[in-house]
Amino acid sequence: MTMAVRSGPATCAGPDEAAVYAALDRVIDPELDESLLRLEFIDGVHIEGDCVTVGLRLPTFWCAPNFAYMMARDTRDRLLEVPGVHRARVTLKDHFASDEITAGVTEGRPFEEVFPGDAEGNLDGLRQLFRRKAYTMRQERFVRLLLDAGLSSEEIVGLRLGDVDFVDNGDDLLLEIGGARRLLPGGAELARVYLARRQELGLDCGAWAPLVTDSRGSPVPAADLVDSMRGARRQRVSMEFNTSLCRGLLTTRYGASGPERPTDHPASTRM
Amino acid sequence: MYRTAQGEEIFVVDGHLHFWDASPANQKNKYGEGFISCFYDYHKNLSPSDYVWPRDKFEKYDEATMMRDVFEDGYVDVGIFQPTYLTDFYENGFNRTEQDAVLKEKYPDRFILNGSFDPRDGDKGLKYLEELHRKYQIKGVKLYTAEWRGESKGWKLDSPEAKRYLQKCQDLGIKNIHVHKGPTIWPLNKDAFDVADVDDAATSFPELNFIVEHCGLPRLEDFCWIAVQEKNVYGGLAVVMPFIHSRPRYFAEVLAELLFWVGEDKLLFASDYAIWRPKWIIDKFMALELPEDLKKETGVDLTPVAKRKILGQNAARLYGLDIEAHKRKLAGGLVGAKP
Questions:
Q1: pLDDT value at position B339?
Q2: Integer Cα distance of B53 and B55 in angstroms
Q3: B182 contacts A62? CB cut-off 8 A
Q4: Is the pTM of this model over 0.90?
Q5: Looking at CB atoms within 10 Å, which of A187, A248, B209, B291 has the fewest?
Q6: Overall average pLDDT of the A71-89 stretch
């Protein structure tokens, strides 16, 4: 059962299915910096009137409860932002803390209340720590592209955000280097994600802000760029390795399925 | 012993072996079932298909299977037992020192027997540690900081209670502290995998060696950073090694990072048997060359010398094992059983 015919007056129509999936795609696993939808952690989306129920599944029974809670809570919060969604229920499956997290998130309770005695505060610090890690990793990928394109360290650290322009085709970038313009084919995706992470971290995103900074927003001198990228590479390799492990364990646990998508999955139903 | 095509002998120490009982009869609750299920998923996910065991065999395997897989087929000369108690999940524990000791007693030259401690056990636990040392002359302990104990969901290495135990280890000459980071630990709102407490302990106890199991995964980046700062921090390659089969590029990338930051003198081979079997891992490791682009970018290489160190020399050094003398000891029987 997939896309059912929508009946009744338009005012009773529930939320737009595509909008629900777009919202889910914005929820990321903080440790892996990847969308839950793309990681195939979303298992079953049910839209019933103004209520959306989403299943969440993770690579292991033991996945850290703080990250599991964060993902479940973010899923609920993003869903509630979709016009027409007034209730959101996230069911965490096959996890040692399934019941606590499912109930706590559905009721909108804070983490430290769901695990009283086990936590000594909220998850803000942990979230910020992983935003910094994601920023570092995304920047390394982008700078690597610039280095591979033959830019020098001086040119790279001299770039400001205003020197980076997206080409209309959506794939390429235009860089302004010392008064000359330079096309960077295929650079748009890396730049887009990098800038999004930068914004989430709360760093300066103005046109005059340096393109390359450390995770606190300080500029990186040209002489330090290689060392700085060496450290960032460690971060990227670690995250890529973990992503690979988690994807593999998820497939072992649940079989290969492909990500949840609107209307093509039996679990996606519209009443 | 691994022999290269040129006939060169390479002495192998497997840094992480288990002899567990996770059979349904020994499982205490859903957590015991969940624990072995998780191990089994790791096993299925990363093993070559012809090395995958049925679930019931994986839950409990016998002595003959282990001796064949590790020593006869698996090239291993000496294996290190790393116990994992989990007494809240299993009636008789998952893999206590005493279970491993049965095999150590029978094949004394094949095994190094490590013990364990849990600082939440207080004075009683200190006495137990002393007893393990007296009874088995242990030279190392395996610590699992995420182990549940009643209401507690874990402990940290830099707590005053843990330091009492580390001091006791130092006093007794138990020099090798293998640390395994698991996912749940107090306080739950912080990053449970964080290895900062290892850093603190390594600074406080410079005479002890801290071997961080699976190189701090999933926080490899933090582990590398600590290993650069602390001379007495080592990386155990359990869980990293099996990537060599199904995800060789990721394995090469991680190994290049480890060689760059931690160095070939501070990495220890481990199969994590019975999660994975040493034979296929060692075959692939000996055949591996780092891809050119990685060599160029990181400036490191996996030379035959580095392989030899990682496979055996580094662990032998930490455990005071004279490789040449030990080879002579083992020359007699296939698995070195007591006469």
A1: 52
A2: 6
A3: yes
A4: yes
A5: B291
A6: 97
B3 strand-pairing partners: B9
| Coil/strand/helix, residue A87 | strand
Whether omega before B187 lies within 30 degrees of 0, making that bond cis, reads: yes
Q: Taking a C-beta distance cutoff of 8 angstroms, is the pair B81, B113 a contact?
A: yes
CA gap A36, A33 in Å, rounded: 9
| Number of Cα atoms under 13 Å in the Cβ half of residue B275 | 23
In a 10 Å sphere around its CB, with 0-12 CB exposed, 13-18 middle and 19+ buried, how is residue B289 labelled? exposed
Residues of A in contact with B183 (CB under 8 A): 62-65
Residue B133, helix vs strand vs coil? helix
- CA pair distance B224, B108, nearest whole angstrom: 34
What are A's interface residues with B at a Cβ cutoff of 8 A? 31, 59-66, 96, 111-112, 115, 117-123, 125-126, 129, 133, 230, 233-235, 237-238, 240-242, 244-245, 248-249, 251-253
The token duo for A102 is: 């499912």
Using an 8 Å Cβ cutoff, are A44 and A260 in contact? yes
* HSE-CB of A187 using CA atoms within 13 angstroms: 22
- Per residue in A108-134, pLDDT (tens digit) is 999 999 999 899 899 999 999 999 999
Give Cα A53 to chain centroid, integer Å: 20
